[in-house]
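Try this one yourself first.
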């Protein structure tokens, strides 16, 4: 029986207060409005960003709220004006979007859509400023335009990527955030050459994806840097072949890496959010051609400090957002890389995938 146009009652994990345990509740999910789609979420992962904002460390407190932004599902129904998606399509909702009309979307150099760029404070839909979630007549706010900790959710069509229906959603759901963020930071931004050296700061899920990008690019030396040596064995599966734990040395880790690599690595990718790791990642690249890419999100009061001569010596510092991928245009192709066994997404660290029993 079709549920299009009707309010759906389903289960969702609701955050009522900052830092308080999530509560499984029966909520109501309204039909999609103009330029929106309603999704049946089959698999959702836990990203540390969900925890960060659930604790209200990076936002103005906005509760009650349904978190979750790394997931896979199927289109249940579409709203007015939606032409490129239809019920039954397999999709990945993404925390950022691609309207395909703004200057950023039309640029080959940017994926930071003017309309659908990440907004952690917004808790309602763009079309009417209202939430599609409610309980007992009271609204429950959205998170990152996705809110995947619910059996059904409503997203703007520009934040939903249609993918190959043969792709296993329980595996490729992590492409909607962590994998693309790390992998793209390496292949799209750092762009290491075959035979080069790459240092990866932080060997959590995003760091492992960045290491995978270095492996796929043909880097010869992939140096993993992490304060937790227990992560080193898992990282070998993603091409990391040398390791440094800063706690094992009595000098700055950038100096350790420079000594290991005759002056510095060709590329570095920072995936921790630690301001000190960011500085180390920049200062450990080789002068003349070294490129450092920052991925991690720092605390709001952090400041990046390095001597200007590091830039004058022709080191380059770059930032990236979602690995410079445009979600609607590029994500289907990344899924095909996985299907063709060109990309490893089975991260043993940092992700927990849950299936919603919404059959």
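Now uncover the answer:
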């Amino acid at each position: 029986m079709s549920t299009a146009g009707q309010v759906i009652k389903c289960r969702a994990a609701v955050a009522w207060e900052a830092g308080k345990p999530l509560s499984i509740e029966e909520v109501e999910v309204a039909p999609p409005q103009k330029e929106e789609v309603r999704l049946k979420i089959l698999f959702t992962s836990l990203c540390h960003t969900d925890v960060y904002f659930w604790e209200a460390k990076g936002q103005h407190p906005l509760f009650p709220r349904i978190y979750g932004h790394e997931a896979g599902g199927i289109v249940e129904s579409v709203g007015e004006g939606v032409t490129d998606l239809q019920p039954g399509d397999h999709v990945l909702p993404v925390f950022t979007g691609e309207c395909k009309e703004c200057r950023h979307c039309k640029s080959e150099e940017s994926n930071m859509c003017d309309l659908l760029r990440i907004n952690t404070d917004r808790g309602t839909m763009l079309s009417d400023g209202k939430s599609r979630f409610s309980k007992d007549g009271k609204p429950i706010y959205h998170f990152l335009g996705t809110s995947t900790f619910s059996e059904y959710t409503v997203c703007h069509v520009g934040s939903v990527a249609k993918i190959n229906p043969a792709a296993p959603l329980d595996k490729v759901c992590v492409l909607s955030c962590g994998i693309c963020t790390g992998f793209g930071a390496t292949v799209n931004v750092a762009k290491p050459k075959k035979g080069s050296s790459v240092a990866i700061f932080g060997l959590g899920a995003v760091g492992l994806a960045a290491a995978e990008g270095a492996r796929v690019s043909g880097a010869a030396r992939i140096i993993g840097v992490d304060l937790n040596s227990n992560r080193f064995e898992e990282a070998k599966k993603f091409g990391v072949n040398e390791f440094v734990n800063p706690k094992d040395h009595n000098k700055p880790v950038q100096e350790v890496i420079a000594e290991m690599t005759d002056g510095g690595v060709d590329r570095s990718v920072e995936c921790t959010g630690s301001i000190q790791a960011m500085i180390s990642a920049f200062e450990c690249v080789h002068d003349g051609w070294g490129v450092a890419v920052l991925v991690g999100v720092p605390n709001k009061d952090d400041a990046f400090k390095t001597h200007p001569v590091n830039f004058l010596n022709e080191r380059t510092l770059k930032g990236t957002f979602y690995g410079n991928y445009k979600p609607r245009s590029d994500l289907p192709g990344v899924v095909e890389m996985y299907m063709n066994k060109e990309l490893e997404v089975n991260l043993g660290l940092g992700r927990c995938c849950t299936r919603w029993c919404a059959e």
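Discussion: Confidence is low (pLDDT under 50) at residues 349-353. The domain at 182-321 is CATH 3.40.50.720 (Rossmann fold).
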